[in-house]
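Predict the assembly for these two chains.
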Amino acid sequence: MTTPPPSVYDYERDGSQIYERSFAMIRAEADLTQIPHDARAVVVRMIHACGQVDLPADVVVHDQLVAAARAALESGAPIFTDAMMIASGITRKRLPADNNVVCLLRDPRVAELASTWGTTRSAAAVSLWGDRLEGAVVAIGNAPTALFHLLELIAAGGPRPAAIVGVPVGFVGSAESKLALTAFTPAIPHLVVHGRRGGSALAVSAINALAQEREI
Amino acid sequence: MTTPPPSVYDYERDGSQIYERSFAMIRAEADLTQIPHDARAVVVRMIHACGQVDLPADVVVHDQLVAAARAALESGAPIFTDAMMIASGITRKRLPADNNVVCLLRDPRVAELASTWGTTRSAAAVSLWGDRLEGAVVAIGNAPTALFHLLELIAAGGPRPAAIVGVPVGFVGSAESKLALTAFTPAIPHLVVHGRRGGSALAVSAINALAQEREI
């Protein structure tokens, strides 16, 4: 263990260089003109996470998203998410106020609520966020049902989060849930990837970029 | 908390139905003809995780991948991975032998090794897998440097894993690392997504599919 294996391949081994060259390639190749200026670094980081420079064509960012999310995080607001992978991926040292990152999918109450309510565990877990949701930052990267349920809670007069990263992935309900978020009134500052694309990596990269302005 | 919010949107709320309809849509839309028969369910699950039915065009699956990975897991082999998100996402109840899932990125030795060796923490962590790597299943979904380092370890006579899911993502070294894996001799059973695409969700979905034949 005291020596590395002999070099066979010629590749970049400097982590900072890899980040810098990656972000430069993304800025050179991706069309970010439709993205608000203050959100471009967020979308660059999302492209970095999925390897696809065509992502911005499907991205819609509300013009208050970055300001609202960053202010909330700096004031100590928690981050609520629908997947353990997302909670795991958020880089704690980028969070400005040691913010709590909360996923309640494994809460012991979830299975019974989901069964009683006839919905998914992901959706039931959203109801457990409770009053702490007021002014919080939400990242939904897995379940369309969680995003629909969240919007239904808010529509019923429930707590309003400060910002919603809405990037559930998939084939059943995903595109529709993101259309519902962008059409919601009164609007909540949001970021979506329209269509089927989405997922934990996109949710995590968006939150990690919103947490701090510096890129690396 | 004893009642769900009133229904506003018309969406599928049955988790099993969502899975089944999703997998059926993927099988109807995706061209899986180039994928070995026993690996098609693996690729379907990967498509489910990224929302993109064009994924198979970039996927290469070694003809022994499924048999080798499944036999290793059934015999209790550990799963080594390069990212905490991947370790978090693997569904433990799908694992056939309560297999250990190991990511050593946060091992206290990693930072110094990476600095001494002039490589990334992701690559240095691979060296810490040690002899347990022999016959194990590897899932690399983040760092190209981890995959290059792994191949260099094996080329130097180190332990040989039973199977490698090689889906690092990104712009610097990612495509090259996956070409190196498919060209490696003697071949190790592998699955790659060529090009820039990859990431934690693809790595996790591949492992979750390899762990068990049943889809849901």
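Chain A touches chain B through 66 residues (CB under 8 Å). The first helix of chain A runs from residue 15 to 29.
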